[in-house]
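hey can u check if this looks right to u? its 474 residues, i copy pasted from the old doc so theres a chance i mangled smth
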Amino acid sequence: MDLVREQAGRARRGVGRLARRPAAGTSPAVRSPIGRRASAVIRRVRREREPRTPGVRAGVLSAGAGLGAGLAAAAGASALAGYFARMVVTPVREHREDLEILAVVRGSRGDEVVLPATPETIVEGTYGLFFHGGQSHARIGEITAFSPRDGTITRRVEEIYRGDLRSAVRGWWTSVTHPDPDSAGFPSRDVVVELPDGPAPAWHVPPQRADGVLAGRGIWAIMVHGRGGRRTEGIRGLAVADRLGLDSLLISYRNDGEAPDAADGRYGLGVTEWEDVEAAVQHALDHGAEDVLLFGWSMGGAIALQTADRSRLAPAIRGLVLTGPVVDWIDVLAHQARENRIPDRVGRMGQWIISNPSGKRVTGLAAPVDLKALNWTARADELHVRTLILHSADDNVVPYGPSRDLAERSPMVSFVPFTRARHIKEWNADPERWERKVAEWTTTLFTADAPPHLASTGTLPTVVSAESTEPAGR
């Protein structure tokens, strides 16, 4: 959403200039339908017979000018709402290099990188750093120095996969720590999943351990990445899947830059992408899976929820493991509007544009997105699959409130809060805790005896971790 923030700022400045322009009928600022109506009203006012009383004439002209300015401002708000809506559903093709790389120095244990101290870079853990336009990638580890006076932080460079970090000046911080499963120590096979729009690449990672508590039971973990991400996001789930004895399938889906694009080239925020995950579930079943566990990060969580709700293969989906998931797009869009300093009414207008058939010309969507169907806080009683949610309280992209609320409303949901992990970096900040919670929950899911009347959809008690006050990474 950083790109949305940057471009929304430009659009806001444009709206400000628009509101200050004269309300002339030929003004290029009034090109929207509302703006054209404003121009027509003004022209009609000017064509009217001039009144005999100069004061009345002045009043009419003043009213016309005020009306024109008001309608022009309304046109600007409409344009900003449309721009916001379009950016939400437009696939991310390029990431903004918003992090300055200050220096690379030699430390006692190898190279270290000096970065600005930001809310992201000061959190303990292991992360990725993309640079050179995303063509280069490094894994960044522990903090070795922190200078509040200079506003800098120094961290150990654990591995450089591609590129020369010393020549880099800018990059972006990421949760992706490895470029592929093999580099993380998990031998993989390249496979193809047949999606509705065509074949898409995926990685199949068989378990290396034969002694996993769930080994030999035909359980597959399907990893679903988030908005603007790729299947590399799912590498974080491989260690716990391997420990349990699960096969893993890391998939690509429409519009992510690896799988074929959808016909409209737009995100469906989960209401279209679930069909691709259904195809991945079918692939797993065709290759020996008996049960499936869906892992989802951010928008991948919204997609996993829709898959479990809509797919004909839902009976094979035994559980969901969701990290920083979007469980209510209405809440996320309202939050993003506030973050981008977009007025509430404009943000609500943007939601209407996304979800209404009349907005298709603005967004480019083939069909409107039903945001209410994506609100699982409101649909809590309709959730029929056991779900584990891990979400950080300081998530600055997808607020964790709806995740917490869903856990309170649905006995199907177990909730593990983190406190200093930002967006979908719960594993990065504290991999031991993330993996332990996932392993415990998954083991219980597949081994605990359920009462007879809950045998097929059994209900696990909601869990709010006693560690909820622990800082992540400690």
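Residues 14-63, 450-474 have pLDDT under 50 and may be disordered.
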